[in-house]
Amino acid sequence: MLSGIKKAVRTVTKRSPPKLLTVKEAWRLTPNMIRVTFAGKELVDFPEGREGGNCKLMLPEPNETREHFQERLINGPSPVRRTYTVRHFNSDTKELDIDFVAHGDNGPASRWANQATPGDFLGFAGPSTPKVTHFNADWYIVAADPSAIPVAAVTLEAMPRDAKGVAVFEITSSEDRQDIQAPKGVEMYWFVNPDSHQPSEAAEKLLRDLGWPKGRVQTCIAGESGIIKKLRSLLAEHNNLQREDIYISGYWKVGHIEDEYQKVKRSENT
Description:
By secondary structure, the protein is α/β, with parallel strands linked by helices. The chain has seven helices and eleven strands.
Protein backbone atom coordinates (compact mmCIF):
# COMPACT_ATOMS: atom_id res chain seq x y z
CA MET A 1 0.00 0.00 0.00
CA LEU A 2 2.79 2.42 0.94
CA SER A 3 4.54 1.78 -2.37
CA GLY A 4 1.32 2.62 -4.23
CA ILE A 5 0.89 5.89 -2.36
CA LYS A 6 4.47 6.94 -3.07
CA LYS A 7 4.06 6.16 -6.76
CA ALA A 8 0.83 8.18 -6.88
CA VAL A 9 2.52 11.17 -5.22
CA ARG A 10 5.37 11.05 -7.72
CA THR A 11 2.88 10.92 -10.59
CA VAL A 12 1.05 14.03 -9.33
CA THR A 13 4.20 16.00 -8.50
CA LYS A 14 6.16 14.65 -11.50
CA ARG A 15 9.07 13.90 -9.20
CA SER A 16 11.46 11.19 -10.28
CA PRO A 17 12.14 8.38 -7.82
CA PRO A 18 15.55 8.42 -6.12
CA LYS A 19 18.46 7.08 -8.11
CA LEU A 20 20.84 4.50 -6.69
CA LEU A 21 24.34 5.83 -7.37
CA THR A 22 27.51 3.76 -7.35
CA VAL A 23 30.92 4.94 -6.11
CA LYS A 24 33.72 4.93 -8.69
CA GLU A 25 36.34 6.29 -6.30
CA ALA A 26 36.72 8.29 -3.09
CA TRP A 27 39.74 10.15 -1.80
CA ARG A 28 40.90 12.96 0.48
CA LEU A 29 40.73 16.16 -1.51
CA THR A 30 42.24 17.84 1.56
CA PRO A 31 42.79 16.48 5.09
CA ASN A 32 39.22 17.43 6.05
CA MET A 33 37.36 17.09 2.75
CA ILE A 34 36.48 13.86 0.97
CA ARG A 35 35.56 13.83 -2.70
CA VAL A 36 33.40 10.96 -3.90
CA THR A 37 33.00 10.32 -7.62
CA PHE A 38 29.92 8.41 -8.75
CA ALA A 39 29.58 6.74 -12.14
CA GLY A 40 27.22 4.37 -13.88
CA LYS A 41 24.17 4.06 -16.11
CA GLU A 42 22.03 5.92 -13.54
CA LEU A 43 23.81 9.16 -14.58
CA VAL A 44 23.10 8.89 -18.32
CA ASP A 45 20.19 11.35 -18.09
CA PHE A 46 21.74 13.59 -15.43
CA PRO A 47 21.07 17.24 -16.38
CA GLU A 48 23.99 19.46 -17.32
CA GLY A 49 24.68 22.82 -15.72
CA ARG A 50 23.60 21.83 -12.21
CA GLU A 51 26.91 22.43 -10.45
CA GLY A 52 26.07 24.34 -7.27
CA GLY A 53 22.58 22.87 -7.05
CA ASN A 54 21.66 20.90 -3.97
CA CYS A 55 20.66 17.27 -3.78
CA LYS A 56 19.42 14.81 -1.20
CA LEU A 57 21.62 11.85 -0.35
CA MET A 58 19.99 8.79 1.21
CA LEU A 59 22.44 6.74 3.24
CA PRO A 60 22.43 2.96 3.64
CA GLU A 61 23.02 1.33 6.99
CA PRO A 62 26.42 -0.33 7.56
CA ASN A 63 26.54 -3.71 5.79
CA GLU A 64 23.12 -3.17 4.20
CA THR A 65 22.80 -4.95 0.86
CA ARG A 66 22.07 -3.07 -2.33
CA GLU A 67 18.86 -5.04 -2.84
CA HIS A 68 17.57 -4.35 0.67
CA PHE A 69 18.42 -0.64 0.41
CA GLN A 70 16.73 -0.34 -2.98
CA GLU A 71 13.61 -1.90 -1.50
CA ARG A 72 13.69 0.63 1.36
CA LEU A 73 13.90 3.53 -1.08
CA ILE A 74 10.60 2.38 -2.55
CA ASN A 75 8.67 1.02 0.42
CA GLY A 76 10.40 2.41 3.51
CA PRO A 77 11.35 2.81 6.21
CA SER A 78 13.06 5.89 4.81
CA PRO A 79 16.85 6.02 5.13
CA VAL A 80 18.73 8.91 6.70
CA ARG A 81 18.82 11.91 4.35
CA ARG A 82 21.35 14.70 4.13
CA THR A 83 21.60 17.75 1.85
CA TYR A 84 24.71 18.19 -0.30
CA THR A 85 25.94 20.21 -3.27
CA VAL A 86 26.74 19.02 -6.78
CA ARG A 87 30.41 19.94 -7.17
CA HIS A 88 30.97 18.77 -10.72
CA PHE A 89 29.39 16.65 -13.43
CA ASN A 90 31.29 15.40 -16.46
CA SER A 91 28.76 14.88 -19.23
CA ASP A 92 31.28 12.98 -21.38
CA THR A 93 32.23 10.36 -18.80
CA LYS A 94 28.93 10.57 -16.84
CA GLU A 95 30.77 11.08 -13.57
CA LEU A 96 29.40 13.09 -10.65
CA ASP A 97 31.54 14.60 -7.86
CA ILE A 98 30.21 15.41 -4.41
CA ASP A 99 32.43 16.72 -1.59
CA PHE A 100 31.92 15.71 2.04
CA VAL A 101 33.35 17.48 5.07
CA ALA A 102 35.26 14.81 6.99
CA HIS A 103 34.06 14.55 10.59
CA GLY A 104 35.25 10.98 11.06
CA ASP A 105 32.35 8.87 12.29
CA ASN A 106 30.56 11.86 13.83
CA GLY A 107 27.55 11.91 11.55
CA PRO A 108 26.09 9.39 9.09
CA ALA A 109 27.20 11.16 5.89
CA SER A 110 30.78 11.71 7.05
CA ARG A 111 30.95 8.12 8.28
CA TRP A 112 29.68 6.83 4.94
CA ALA A 113 32.12 8.96 2.90
CA ASN A 114 35.04 8.11 5.18
CA GLN A 115 34.47 4.41 4.52
CA ALA A 116 33.39 4.66 0.86
CA THR A 117 35.12 2.35 -1.62
CA PRO A 118 34.44 1.54 -5.29
CA GLY A 119 31.13 -0.29 -5.64
CA ASP A 120 29.49 1.28 -2.59
CA PHE A 121 26.15 2.99 -3.12
CA LEU A 122 23.65 5.53 -1.83
CA GLY A 123 20.33 7.07 -2.84
CA PHE A 124 20.21 10.37 -4.71
CA ALA A 125 17.38 12.82 -5.37
CA GLY A 126 17.73 16.04 -7.34
CA PRO A 127 19.57 18.11 -8.30
CA SER A 128 18.08 21.58 -7.95
CA THR A 129 19.15 24.46 -10.16
CA PRO A 130 22.33 26.28 -9.04
CA LYS A 131 22.05 28.78 -6.21
CA VAL A 132 23.66 31.55 -8.27
CA THR A 133 22.51 31.65 -11.89
CA HIS A 134 23.44 35.12 -13.13
CA PHE A 135 26.46 37.42 -12.86
CA ASN A 136 25.67 41.08 -13.46
CA ALA A 137 27.46 42.79 -10.58
CA ASP A 138 30.34 45.24 -10.30
CA TRP A 139 31.58 43.47 -7.18
CA TYR A 140 31.10 40.00 -5.69
CA ILE A 141 31.20 38.85 -2.09
CA VAL A 142 31.65 35.13 -1.43
CA ALA A 143 31.92 33.64 2.05
CA ALA A 144 31.83 30.02 3.18
CA ASP A 145 32.79 27.67 5.98
CA PRO A 146 33.75 24.07 5.13
CA SER A 147 30.12 23.00 4.68
CA ALA A 148 29.62 25.60 1.93
CA ILE A 149 32.97 25.49 0.12
CA PRO A 150 31.45 23.45 -2.77
CA VAL A 151 28.74 26.02 -3.58
CA ALA A 152 31.21 28.89 -3.16
CA ALA A 153 33.79 27.20 -5.39
CA VAL A 154 31.24 26.51 -8.13
CA THR A 155 30.10 30.13 -8.00
CA LEU A 156 33.63 31.49 -8.28
CA GLU A 157 34.44 29.18 -11.19
CA ALA A 158 31.28 30.24 -13.04
CA MET A 159 31.94 33.98 -12.74
CA PRO A 160 33.10 36.04 -15.72
CA ARG A 161 36.89 36.02 -15.82
CA ASP A 162 36.99 39.80 -15.39
CA ALA A 163 34.86 39.73 -12.21
CA LYS A 164 36.08 41.58 -9.14
CA GLY A 165 35.40 40.97 -5.49
CA VAL A 166 36.42 39.11 -2.38
CA ALA A 167 36.08 35.50 -1.23
CA VAL A 168 36.43 34.53 2.44
CA PHE A 169 36.79 30.91 3.51
CA GLU A 170 36.89 29.34 6.95
CA ILE A 171 38.83 26.06 6.98
CA THR A 172 39.86 23.57 9.64
CA SER A 173 43.60 23.58 8.87
CA SER A 174 45.93 25.43 6.51
CA GLU A 175 46.19 22.26 4.42
CA ASP A 176 42.46 22.48 3.63
CA ARG A 177 42.97 25.26 1.11
CA GLN A 178 41.62 24.24 -2.27
CA ASP A 179 42.71 25.17 -5.76
CA ILE A 180 39.64 27.09 -6.92
CA GLN A 181 39.66 28.63 -10.40
CA ALA A 182 38.44 32.05 -9.31
CA PRO A 183 38.79 35.18 -11.45
CA LYS A 184 42.09 36.98 -10.87
CA GLY A 185 40.19 40.06 -9.71
CA VAL A 186 38.63 38.19 -6.77
CA GLU A 187 40.88 38.37 -3.71
CA MET A 188 40.91 35.13 -1.71
CA TYR A 189 41.20 34.91 2.09
CA TRP A 190 41.55 31.67 4.06
CA PHE A 191 41.05 31.70 7.83
CA VAL A 192 41.94 28.65 9.90
CA ASN A 193 39.46 27.67 12.61
CA PRO A 194 40.30 24.23 14.04
CA ASP A 195 37.06 24.00 16.06
CA SER A 196 33.96 24.14 13.87
CA HIS A 197 31.74 24.22 16.97
CA GLN A 198 33.14 27.67 17.70
CA PRO A 199 32.46 29.42 14.37
CA SER A 200 34.86 32.21 13.61
CA GLU A 201 33.76 35.81 13.17
CA ALA A 202 36.71 36.49 10.87
CA ALA A 203 34.57 36.82 7.74
CA GLU A 204 32.32 39.48 9.27
CA LYS A 205 35.30 41.43 10.61
CA LEU A 206 37.14 41.30 7.30
CA LEU A 207 34.14 42.48 5.31
CA ARG A 208 33.55 45.36 7.71
CA ASP A 209 37.21 46.36 7.66
CA LEU A 210 37.39 46.31 3.86
CA GLY A 211 34.63 48.87 3.55
CA TRP A 212 31.53 48.44 1.44
CA PRO A 213 32.06 48.52 -2.35
CA LYS A 214 30.24 50.89 -4.66
CA GLY A 215 28.12 49.81 -7.59
CA ARG A 216 26.05 46.66 -7.92
CA VAL A 217 27.01 43.96 -5.41
CA GLN A 218 26.17 40.27 -5.60
CA THR A 219 26.67 37.68 -2.86
CA CYS A 220 27.13 33.96 -2.37
CA ILE A 221 27.33 33.38 1.38
CA ALA A 222 26.62 30.19 3.31
CA GLY A 223 27.65 28.39 6.47
CA GLU A 224 26.80 28.09 10.14
CA SER A 225 23.49 29.71 11.11
CA GLY A 226 24.79 32.00 13.84
CA ILE A 227 27.44 33.53 11.61
CA ILE A 228 24.98 33.81 8.72
CA LYS A 229 22.64 35.88 10.91
CA LYS A 230 25.46 38.34 11.59
CA LEU A 231 26.32 38.56 7.92
CA ARG A 232 22.65 39.13 7.07
CA SER A 233 22.71 42.10 9.43
CA LEU A 234 25.80 43.41 7.68
CA LEU A 235 24.11 43.16 4.28
CA ALA A 236 21.00 44.87 5.60
CA GLU A 237 23.07 47.97 6.39
CA HIS A 238 23.61 48.67 2.69
CA ASN A 239 21.19 49.71 -0.02
CA ASN A 240 23.03 48.67 -3.20
CA LEU A 241 21.89 45.06 -2.93
CA GLN A 242 19.00 43.80 -5.02
CA ARG A 243 17.04 40.79 -3.82
CA GLU A 244 17.85 38.74 -6.90
CA ASP A 245 21.57 39.36 -6.31
CA ILE A 246 21.60 37.93 -2.79
CA TYR A 247 22.27 34.32 -1.96
CA ILE A 248 22.84 33.85 1.75
CA SER A 249 21.85 30.70 3.61
CA GLY A 250 22.45 28.88 6.86
CA TYR A 251 23.52 25.32 6.12
CA TRP A 252 23.80 24.06 9.68
CA LYS A 253 23.62 25.13 13.31
CA VAL A 254 25.97 24.34 16.18
CA GLY A 255 24.44 21.66 18.41
CA HIS A 256 21.84 20.49 15.86
CA ILE A 257 21.78 17.61 13.41
CA GLU A 258 20.39 18.47 9.97
CA ASP A 259 16.85 17.22 10.65
CA GLU A 260 16.61 19.38 13.77
CA TYR A 261 18.08 22.42 12.08
CA GLN A 262 15.75 22.15 9.08
CA LYS A 263 12.76 22.19 11.45
CA VAL A 264 14.14 25.30 13.15
CA LYS A 265 14.79 26.94 9.79
CA ARG A 266 11.27 26.20 8.53
CA SER A 267 9.72 27.59 11.71
CA GLU A 268 11.73 30.81 11.36
CA ASN A 269 10.47 31.24 7.79
CA THR A 270 6.79 30.85 8.68
